[in-house]
């Protein structure tokens, strides 16, 4: 089964260790040690017995799938022995099928089934309070790559700033990131900007340069200007210009102006300025503060100051070249400069921050305790310290992670260098398999882009070829922002293909060795090298490792690529060899090597390198792809000149499609938006959502009773085992205008087909009743499930345990469970809402509380057989609504076979939509059905054929299948009218098409009301289907009635049937508000047993103090309300009454 | 119009009769009668099918509705159906299966006790009436392989216990009561070959013409190399040959007409009634319907009610 490589991998220990290693230790007394996370276990009274907690139990009991999270805290007093103490940090959510998950051991489907899971369960999500949630993949700027950018907002930073900058997102080994911006000033200088605690600090670049290493002005000058060579000015690939030297002078002058000459002075300067903002360093020397700033904020991915210095020089050169227009901007919206945020990384950086906060709080707490008045607190006493630790609520840590996953919200001060703080997780809906799968393959551009008015971020760029599916993106609001990875695309992680943790240090060392062997000059602190076009910088994961002559470099690249394929070399298979060649004012040249995790990669076939050991599949990334020559089987030579022969070849043209996009048969014959619609509709199809249906307690599950596998299918169907979760039915579809009920995308279903089970389905709905939850709020009443012995009426439905009988049919407003309150001795029952009967499918109870049942799941089943108004769709974006269940005998029939269609669609569905593949599917499925075999409908497959001899078109191929069985070549048949028995005037296109039943069903949507609840303020009907409200008769509806002149109807809808009211109006003062009813004094006089005559209501105007001018006027009640509202604003409304004719 | 009689005397010639298959010719009538016969066979000849299911125990993987639906679709032998009563018309009972005039009771009691999956089939249904039983599809030869229609499969420990009541009904109400798998008719084609024109064709052209029809209507006589009609009824009115002739520049080479008054019927039943019986029953139902129209007071009433419209409706 397919899954992203990221899915099951949560590299807890490794990342936690990393994150803890850099935590600030306080006075060398206290620091974090080894973290430990345990597999999920059940809460039990006895401490010795530990039962494993399985995911299905979490789903049913609405628990979280979490394991105990312990961290060693180490104490050391006065250089004494280190004391380790395990502290419980609460419950840590465990991803399914990760290392700590119980399902990890279940490697085959039988074991999974034994654990009551899907046979093809692939994990990758969390279970929190019974809900399955996935961490979204979010696009981030590519790490450790300096990117040139232009933003108008840069100008607003401060006076003199230009709109250009070089930006780098530096990522530490523990995945936490710090972004740095190198701004260009209009005077030729540059500023380095970084954020500390929500504020951006801008430093002159010269100070940083000097602070990083002991250097002289001359060295800096030479380093900066090395990229300029007078002889090579303005030749291909040269990036430097004369101006660089002048700018270097300005930079150096700036530092001098601040009278900073030595490294020590620069460090002091930095330390002085940053001491207030560096937490916990109030007492340290300026130099330590400055070191901390350089360590924690400047190029955090590098440890060595010389490397930092070199990178800063490189960035300055890139910035100057951008200004001098010898290189172009990098596009931040292009996939070339992007990577993705992985679930493990997000949890790690979030946890790191939480732990840091916790340690800081603990530090403060200990400080307070020791400084406290009582002086009882002894820092050396372990018990006291532990008490303080307990006070600091360590268990909140697990809860914080759980809450983050549950809500998708990051509660953080720093923002973790991420663009968004909400929407990090989504619920993994199991509506059907495709939808579930898509949650794991979806890549979101980031919530901050959703509000952007420009469409540039949503554009489909050529850089995403092969990595993001061009078809599978929703239309409408999130279009282009929510993309899906292609079927072959995966993401690099800390683990290699065998599941072992990668050793990045070893990897980099071997790459370095290889590079040096080929002829790279390794960078050394004081070495000054010429720049492009003679020498190109070689960057490995954002570190300048050396320089290489531009003549050699191409050879080096091919050599590296060959080593990537070889299994014997220690070069990682997913190494990205981003070689940006020399060009005339193109992208800034260089050789950029990446081994980092969270990059996109995809396999392509290497054709230049001799296939070693039969492995010619090379993993390439989007950064290198742009500069590679990859031929596509259906693209011919792609306009490529012979000078650039293809070095790689696509495995199959369908590799640009996502899993869902791959399932559309012959999508290459469809108009492209139709394929997009199908990707949408495929995900809202009612299908076989789960095979472990009986073990699930989802709120709502859609289930198709008799699904089929499509006759016409792509290769992807077998590859992704879609047959395990089928999604539709092969229906015999006739394309004709018949009965008139197939107009405007409506479709006519054959009633007998529906009788026989076509598209029958169910909705499974689970109600969870938790008595403990409710009793906490109320008066701690003991409540249990029990039925009343007095009221026998419900005994038909409810068993003696207070829960319904399984298999029992329950009608609306009938009770389905009854609850007994021990204190009030009252029995209440829960009644079924809605308007349709349900069947009790399943009842499960939580037996944790052995004496009294407190929690129960009741699963209802609603039959959803096709009715008028239900939505169906073929696999080609052709959706329609069932408009009639037409009698079988009235359907047209074939004279030869006697066959009647299952459904009829209108021929007008085709000309404008051009879904040719649907016609092909019909012909192919007919042929396939006649021959008893499946038909392969993989798109672009004609280009993959080995022999070119078969020049026949697809239609001829399919047509010959039909003629072989005595059918018309084009899939048409002579049909006879079912009503008259006469031949229809033309031949009708008829054949099986795979139809999906969509989840939108009238039974869930219809809304009707005669009278009912009204809003108590306006006295108009309330809204909302659930509450029995009305359908809004809005402004546009009003307009249309006005235009028709249907005044009576208008009056009826908006007044009589809405908020008709008879108001008493005082004609003297014209007020509707001042009327008051005078209660006539009660005269208890009854005249001879007759009922007392109704006295006419006495109404009086309070303002005029008379009832003389009181009149009754019919008006909408809101009008009176309006008058009251206006009165509250001191506006008086007066009515002038007249008797109709007069003005 | 008055006085002229359009009465015709339709003839039926039976070509082939099997238990559940029949082919016959219907001549000297028009499409309205032919289609009426077809429609009645599909939708209005009564059969017996399970209509009410009381489930006692169901621990199988399929839910109650699913099993009930499957039970309903099992064809039951319905020779008795014509003489039975609709349960809605039955005075003797309230349709609870106790009454022999309108309903038949079935029991299904199966439990799987072995490790092998147990197929619950239509043969496990126990009928209270030996004339109404699930249709036996075995052709008498190999009973070992043919075990009836599978209802559900049970694993060890699963059990299915239910009582079902079969009732009389017609296919119009629900497809489960339809006795016909397929009923279709075609107009008998008349094919004329213009011999003179045909002579002008070469042998290859003749072969092309013959091959242009997807079904084997024409052939070339191996002796005199003439195009002959081998099976006119194989013709599906697809006009392929006519189009071919036109494409050859010889319109009128072949002429095909549908005879307006003769039909070839193909009837296939589900096994609930014999194919021959189905046709007879259909004619019976048609007669009853005609009688109902002729004898009904409604005809007169309708005249009063609709006035001129009534006359119009009768073709006046």
Structure description:
The longest helix of chain A is centred in the N-terminal third of the chain and has 29 residues, at 343-371. Chain A has 26 helices and 49 strands. The model of chain A is unreliable at 1-11 and 13-26 (pLDDT under 50). In chain A, helix 21 runs parallel beside helix 22. Chain A is α+β, with helices and mostly antiparallel strands and 1143 residues long. Among the domains of chain A are: 142-341, Alpha-Beta Complex (Dna-directed Rna Polymerase Ii 140kd Polypeptide, Chain: B, domain 3); 494-654, Hypothetical Protein Ta0175, Chain: A, domain 2, CATH 3.90.1070.20; 661-760 and 867-945 and 952-998, Dna-directed Rna Polymerase Ii 140kd Polypeptide, Chain: B, Domain 6 (Beta Barrel), CATH 2.40.270; 761-863, Beta Barrel (OB fold (Dihydrolipoamide Acetyltransferase, E2P)); 1059-1079 and 1096-1143, RNA polymerase alpha subunit dimerisation domain (DCoH-like, Alpha-Beta Complex). In chain A, the strands form 13 sheets. Chain A has a 6-stranded mixed beta barrel with strand order 29-41-30-39-38-45. The N and C termini of chain A lie far apart (80 Å). Among the domains of chain B are: 47-178, DNA-directed RNA polymerase, insert domain (RNA Polymerase Alpha Subunit, Chain A, domain 2); 195-252, 2-Layer Sandwich (Alpha-Beta Plaits), CATH 3.30.70. In chain B, 26% of the residues lie in helices and 29% in strands. Chain B starts with 10 loop residues before the first strand and ends with a helix. Chain B is α+β, with helices and mostly antiparallel strands. Chain B contains 8 helices and 12 strands. A 4-stranded antiparallel β-sheet of chain B has the order 1-2-12-9. In chain B, helix 4 packs antiparallel against helix 5. Chain A: This is DNA-directed RNA polymerase subunit beta. Chain A: One of its GO terms (cellular component) is RNA polymerase I complex. Chain A: InterPro entries: DNA-dir_RNA_pol_su2, DNA-dir_RNAP_su2_dom, DNA-dir_RNAP_su2_hyb_sf, RNA_pol_bsu_CS, RNA_pol_bsu_protrusion, RNA_pol_Rpb2_2, RNA_pol_Rpb2_2_sf, RNA_pol_Rpb2_3.
């Amino acid at each position: 089964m397919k899954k992203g490589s990221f899915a099951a991998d949560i590299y807890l220990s490794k990342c936690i260790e990393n994150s803890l290693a850099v935590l600030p230790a306080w006075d060398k007394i206290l620091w974090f040690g080894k973290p430990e996370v345990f597999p999920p276990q059940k809460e039990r009274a006895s401490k010795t017995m530990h039962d494993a907690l399985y995911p299905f139990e979490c789903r049913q009991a609405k628990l979280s799938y979490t394991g105990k999270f312990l961290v060693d805290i180490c104490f050391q007093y006065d250089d004494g022995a280190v004391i380790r103490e395990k502290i419980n940090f609460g419950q840590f959510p465990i991803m399914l099928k990760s290392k700590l998950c119980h399902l990890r051991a279940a490697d085959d489907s039988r074991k999974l089934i034994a654990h009551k899971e899907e046979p093809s369960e692939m994990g990758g999500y969390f279970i929190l309070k019974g809900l399955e949630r996935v961490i979204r993949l979010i696009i981030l700027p590519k790490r450790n790559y300096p990117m040139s950018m232009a933003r108008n907002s840069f100008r607003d930073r401060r006076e003199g700033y230009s709109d250009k900058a070089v930006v780098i997102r530096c990522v530490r080994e523990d995945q936490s990131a710090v972004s740095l911006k190198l701004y260009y000033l209009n005077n030729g200088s540059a500023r380095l900007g970084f954020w500390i605690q929500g504020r951006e600090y801008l430093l002159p670049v010269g100070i940083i340069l000097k602070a990083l290493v002991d250097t002289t002005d001359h060295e800096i000058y030479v380093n900066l200007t090395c990229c300029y060579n007078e002889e090579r000015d303005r030749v291909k690939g040269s990036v430097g210009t004369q101006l660089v030297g002048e700018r270097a002078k300005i930079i150096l002058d700036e530092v001098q102006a601040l009278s900073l000459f030595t490294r020590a002075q620069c460090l002091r300067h930095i330390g002085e300025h940053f001491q207030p903002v560096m937490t916990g360093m109030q007492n340290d020397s300026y130099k330590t503060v400055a070191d901390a700033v350089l360590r924690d904020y400047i190029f955090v991915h590098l440890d060595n100051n010389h490397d930092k210095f070199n990178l800063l020089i490189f960035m300055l050169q890139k910035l100057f070249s951008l200004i001098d227009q010898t290189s172009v901007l990098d596009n931040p919206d292009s996939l070339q400069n992007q990577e993705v945020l992985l679930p493990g990384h997000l949890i790690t950086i979030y946890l790191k921050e939480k732990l840091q906060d916790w340690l800081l709080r603990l530090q403060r707490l200990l400080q307070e305790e020791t400084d406290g008045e009582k002086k009882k607190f002894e820092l050396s006493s372990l018990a006291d310290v532990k008490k303080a630790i307990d006070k600091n609520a360590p268990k909140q840590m697990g809860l914080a992670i759980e809450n983050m996953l549950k809500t998708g919200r990051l509660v953080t001060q720093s923002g973790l260098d991420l663009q968004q703080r909400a929407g990090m997780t989504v619920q993994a809906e199991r509506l059907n398999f495709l939808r579930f799968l898509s949650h794991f393959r979806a890549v979101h551009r980031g919530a901050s882009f959703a509000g952007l008015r420009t469409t540039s971020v949503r554009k489909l760029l050529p850089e995403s070829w092969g990595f993001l599916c061009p078809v599978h993106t929703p239309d409408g609001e999130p279009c282009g922002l929510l993309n899906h990875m292609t079927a072959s695309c995966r993401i690099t992680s800390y683990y290699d293909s065998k599941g072992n943790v990668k050793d990045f240090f070893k990897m980099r060392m071997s790459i370095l060795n290889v590079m040096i062997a080929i002829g790279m000059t390794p960078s050394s602190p004081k070495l000054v090298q010429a720049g492009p076009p003679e020498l190109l910088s070689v960057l490995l994961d954002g570190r300048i490792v050396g320089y290489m002559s531009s003549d050699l470099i191409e050879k080096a690249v091919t050599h590296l690529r060959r080593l990537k394929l070889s299994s014997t070399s220690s070069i990682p298979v997913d190494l990205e060899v981003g070689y940006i060649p020399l060009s005339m004012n193109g992208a800034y040249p260089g050789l950029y090597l990446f081994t980092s995790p969270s990059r996109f990669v995809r396999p392509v076939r290497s054709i230049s390198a001799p296939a070693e050991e039969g492995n010619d599949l090379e993993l390439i990334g989007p950064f290198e792809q742009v500069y590679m020559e990859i031929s596509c089987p259906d693209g011919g030579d792609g306009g490529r000149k012979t000078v650039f022969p293809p070095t790689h070849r696509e495995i199959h043209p369908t590799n640009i499609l996502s899993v869902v996009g791959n399932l559309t048969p012959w999508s290459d014959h469809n108009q492209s938006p139709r394929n997009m619609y199908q990707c949408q509709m495929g995900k809202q199809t009612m299908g076989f959502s789960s095979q472990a249906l009986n073990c699930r307690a989802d709120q709502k599950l859609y289930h198709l009773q008799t699904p089929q596998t499509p006759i016409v299918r792509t290769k992807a169907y077998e590859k992704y085992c879609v047959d395990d979760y089928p999604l539709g039915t092969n229906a015999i579809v006739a394309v004709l205008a018949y009965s008139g009920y197939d107009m405007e995308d409506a479709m006519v279903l054959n009633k007998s087909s529906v009788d026989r089970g076509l598209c029958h389905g169910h909705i499974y709905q689970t109600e969870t009743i938790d008595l403990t939850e409710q009793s906490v709020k109320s008066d701690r009443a003991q409540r249990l499930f029990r039925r009343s012995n007095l009221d026998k009426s419900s005994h038909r439905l409810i068993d003696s345990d207070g829960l319904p009988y399984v298999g029992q049919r329950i009608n609306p407003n009938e009770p389905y469970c009854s609850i007994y309150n021990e204190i009030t001795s009252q029995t209440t029952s829960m009644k079924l809402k809605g308007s349709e009967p349900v069947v009790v499918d399943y009842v499960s109870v939580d037996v944790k509380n052995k004496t009294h049942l407190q929690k129960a799941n009741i699963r209802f089943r609603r039959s959803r057989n096709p009715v008028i108004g239900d939505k169906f769709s073929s696999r080609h974006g052709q959706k329609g609504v069932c408009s009639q269940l037409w009698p079988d005998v009235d359907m047209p029939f074939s004279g030869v076979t006697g066959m009647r269609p299952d459904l009829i669609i209108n021929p007008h569905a085709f000309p404008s939509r051009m879904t040719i593949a649907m016609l092909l599917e019909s012909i192919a499925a007919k042929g396939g059905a006649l021959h008893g075999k499946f038909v392969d409908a993989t798109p672009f497959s004609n280009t993959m054929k080995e022999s070119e001899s078969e020049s026949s078109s697809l239609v001829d191929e399919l047509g010959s299948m039909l003629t072989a069985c005595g059918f018309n070549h084009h899939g048409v048949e002579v049909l006879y009218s079912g009503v008259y028995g006469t031949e229809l005037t033309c031949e009708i296109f008829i054949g099986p098409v795979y139809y999906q039943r969509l989840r939108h069903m009238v039974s869930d949507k219809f809304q009707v009301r005669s009278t009912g609840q009204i809003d108590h303020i306006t006295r108009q009907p309330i809204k909302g289907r659930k509450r029995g409200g009305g359908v809004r008769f809005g402004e546009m509806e009003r307009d249309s009635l006005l235009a028709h002149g249907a005044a009576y109807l208008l009056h009826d809808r908006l007044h009589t049937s809405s908020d008709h009211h008879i108001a008493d109006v005082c004609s003297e003062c014209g007020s509707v508000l001042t009327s008051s009813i005078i209660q006539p004094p009660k005269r208890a006089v009854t005249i001879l047993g007759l009922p007392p005559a109704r006295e006419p209501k006495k109404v009086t105007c309070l303002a005029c103090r008379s009832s003389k001018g009181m009149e009754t006027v019919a008006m909408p009640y809101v009008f009176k309300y309006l008058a009251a509202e206006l009165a509250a604003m001191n506006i008086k409304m007066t009515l002038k009454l007249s008797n109709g004719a007069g003005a | 119009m008055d006085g002229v009689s359009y009465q015709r005397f339709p003839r039926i010639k039976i070509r082939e009769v099997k238990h559940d298959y029949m082919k016959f010719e219907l001549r000297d009538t028009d499409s309205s009668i032919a289609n009426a016969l077809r429609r009645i066979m599909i939708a209005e000849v009564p059969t017996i099918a399970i209509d009410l299911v009381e489930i006692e125990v169901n621990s199988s993987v399929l839910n109650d509705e699913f099993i009930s639906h499957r039970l309903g679709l099992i064809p039951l032998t319905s020779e008795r159906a014509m003489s039975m009563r609709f349960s809605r018309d039955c005075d003797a009972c309230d349709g609870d299966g106790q009454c022999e005039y309108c309903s038949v009771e079935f029991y299904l009691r199966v439990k799987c006790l072995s490790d092998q999956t147990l197929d619950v089939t239509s043969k496990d249904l126990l009928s209270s009436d030996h004339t109404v039983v699930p249709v036996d599809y075995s052709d008498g030869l190999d009973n070992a392989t043919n075990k009836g229609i599978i209802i559900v499969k049970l694993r060890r420990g699963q059990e299915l216990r239910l009582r079902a009541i079969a009732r009389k009904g017609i296919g119009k109400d629900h497809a489960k009561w339809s006795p016909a798998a397929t009923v279709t008719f075609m107009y008998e084609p008349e094919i004329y070959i213009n011999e003179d024109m045909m002579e002008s064709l070469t042998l290859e052209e003749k072969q092309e013409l013959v091959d242009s029809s997807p079904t084997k209507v024409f052939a070339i006589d191996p002796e005199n190399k003439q195009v002959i009609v081998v099976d006119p009824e194989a013709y599906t009115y697809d006009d392929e040959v006519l189009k071919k002739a036109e494409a050859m520049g010889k319109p009128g080479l072949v002429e095909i007409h549908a005879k307006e008054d003769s039909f070839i019927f193909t009837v296939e039943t589900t096994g609930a009634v014999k194919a021959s019986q189905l046709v007879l029953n259909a004619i019976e139902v048609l007669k009853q319907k005609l009688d109902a129209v002729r004898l009904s007071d409604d005809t007169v009433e309708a005249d009063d009610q609709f006035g001129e419209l009534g006359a119009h409706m009768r073709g006046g």
